[in-house]
Amino acid sequence: MHHHRSAPPCAGxxxxxxHYRQPDxxxxxxxxxxxxxxxxxxxxxxxxxxxxxxxxxxxxxxxxAQYAMWGIEGFWRVETEPELSLTAYALxxxxxxxxxLGSWGPGETVCVERPFRVSFAVDDLAR
Length: 127
Description:
Strand order of the largest sheet: 1-4-6-7-8-9
Number of domains: 1
Low-confidence stretches: none
Largest sheet: 6 strands, mixed
Mean pLDDT: 89
Helix content: 10-25%
Number of helices: 1
CATH class: Alpha Beta
CATH superfamily: tt1808, chain A
CATH topology: tt1808, chain A
Radius of gyration: 14 Å
Strand content: 35-45%
Structural class: mainly beta
């Protein structure tokens, strides 16, 4: 049984009245029906960022720190240089900091249990 689904395109995460972020991909709880373009952090199970040359610091440092502070259970970072890779993180509820679950590169299969069970080939991210 699936307990999650993808957020609608362009959905952002809003925390309070003045703080928001727009992840490249957000996976929301199955029972969430977004009303508009903004999601509450409690609606989001996973935020994924694809690092680009223009967003290295934001995608590697700023956004994960904010997502953790907001209580988002999972964060995944996709790197495209020097080669395609994915690093998965899960929130440690004791200190609101992400713990690395693993890192996978070309030809490898991602397999994680948190924030939900999923497995797929890293190479599928390039399709």
